[in-house]
Amino acid sequence: MMTKTTSAALFFLAAGYLTSVSILSAYQVLFVIPMAYYTWLAFKEKNFNLPKSSYWLLAFAVVAIISLLVNIDSVPKPGKNFGKIKYFVYGISGIWVLRTWVKEASDKQKKI
Fold first, then answer.
1. pTM of the full predicted structure?
2. Three state DSSP letters for 52-94
């Protein structure tokens, strides 16, 4: 089930880059489901083997959150800036999704 959802999300990601930016919202919605599931599995199984770059990305996201909290009164649109941090979380959590998708997806799904 998660393999098909991930495949659909990756299809909308590619279609969004090739056609319209608004199609990327379908990718974000579909990718959240397997991202939450595989992140939960990683925490449940205590399987945190991520590349070092992911830890740097996580540290950057934490520093960005702290910076926004400290300077919240001088930031013009704090909600919009907090929303931009989700892209770093997508990068970190997406690693578990893509690793599993590469292992479990059939060759036909990968070709599409």
1. 0.71
2. HHHHHHHHHHHHHHHHHHHCCCCCCCHHHHHHHCHHHHHHHHH
